[in-house]
Batch of 3 targets.
Target 1
Amino acid sequence: MNTTQQSGFSILEVMISIAILAVGLLGAAAMQTKAIHSNYFAGVLTEKTSVAEEWMEWLINFSRQNYTIGNDNYNGYELLAALDTYPAAGTGTEKKLTCSNREELKNELHAWGLRPPTGERFDDSQLPKPPGRSYRVSWHIDANSPLDNTTTIRVETMEGGRPISLIFLVSSAM
């Protein structure tokens, strides 16, 4: 009697192992999709924060300089504090910037009474570089808050529905 034993996998075993492998690969693909989405969100968050930081640094530098407009001398702090149209109310004033168009931005700053230390209008080298995306940037200025001669400025950048805000204080004594 000649008995031969065959070894190997049955078709059922192969199909079960393929099903288990497919479930594992689907889980890995879902993790990869989540990682790509999170990486994109982190990149946008970093860029929005960078735009807000650039404007914050620009405003701090602006507040520390002295300016001559016509025969009048000002310092940057006074010009920024004057942007709060109701300083006694404690509510602050919002100033929205057009950052996508450099000429409109320069016109807005000029209309608000902000001037470079020399000259009548800012040039491109005196302003933060425009962001790569179309961000909405706004300043929330609250003069004499939290103390007299101290102005709270919140710089907010938004792209999509999630704003990023940086809050800082400038003072005439700084």
Target 2
Amino acid sequence: MTQPPDAGSAGPPDHRPPQVPVGTAPAAPPRRLRAFVVGLVLAAVLAVLLFVGLGSTSPSSGTAGGGVVPIGTMAPDFTLPAVAGGAPVHLAAVGRSRHHPVILNFFASWCVPCQQETPLLASTAATEQAKGSVLQFVGVDVGEQVSAALPFITKAGITYPVGQDADIQVAGALYGLNGEPQTFFIDESGVVVGHAAGPLKKAQLVGWVHRLTGGH
């Protein structure tokens, strides 16, 4: 007759999984794992920021989607129909092709600061022309039809060439502008040496005229 095992003898091994007390939270992940996950998240964020930053960098040419044409770069060339009719307004033909410095002004007839500034530009240009100066003035009327632009330039006394940028391709896409008036100062080789956003004061304009003409 088989005898029951003694109470003190070892029984068969217990293969049941350890029991977790009810209500006990699972153990937290190791510190190394958490640090690794945090590092991955930070790396992903930095990669996105870098991509966005590179995608929004303004090109030096001032092309569409970029910033304002920077000082020290070539002024982008353009040809526009003349507001007053006649030959188209070609920037390079007026300026660097003839080794002439240029004051290039962007304006609109409805712009109040432009209304204050344009007569000053017109009178200064007339004075330079009467002196036989090499300095050339070029205007660009932005986003308007001839019916609005022509009376304005006539009233202001403008005699220099003014191009009609009705679709804002030159002011916006080529030069990167988003408001008027804006003026670029271009040397005889076609390089932008200065830029003014907002209406020019007389002393400021006179200073640029002297600089571009060598004081003559």
Target 3
Amino acid sequence: MVARSHSGWLALVPVKELPRGKSRLADVLDGDARADLVLFLMARVVRACLEAGLAVCVVSPDADVHAAARSLGADVLDDGGGDLTESVALALARHAGATGVAVLAADLPHVTADDVRTLVASARPLALVAAPDGTTNAIAACPPSAFRPSYGPGSAERHGGTRLRLAGIERDVDTPDDLGLALTACRG
């Protein structure tokens, strides 16, 4: 059963197909290890969102991702394998009736429920947490129609909104240098 929020907010967590996930780590992790890492990090994000009181929908074309998400209490949406912008746009269209929507990257090893609550509370109409490289790690929109997804290099600037500094959301895992974050989170 999906945990429903009394506030009507929904968290969207997009996840690539497991064989394509974390491809920049292929020099240091084999395919199985990358898949395990993706599922571990996704679970941390989903749990933080549920603890913050948001319903969660994991957006992915991957059946194993769907099964893992459902086991955590999240709903799922098959995005057909589109790119991130297409996947989020599809999910926003499907959930246009939500009070608000938070879209969080699935690779945030230190995200907390308090981070998610702060992000959601700051959405007037948009609040954003950028990654160090200028991409968007999380964005919240109230109403959902205030957000027009445009992911990729420089997306944080294009998306706009109130910029937040939330350490648990700013740090993601994209490169071998980032793996220390995930290892710390595993121990924590």
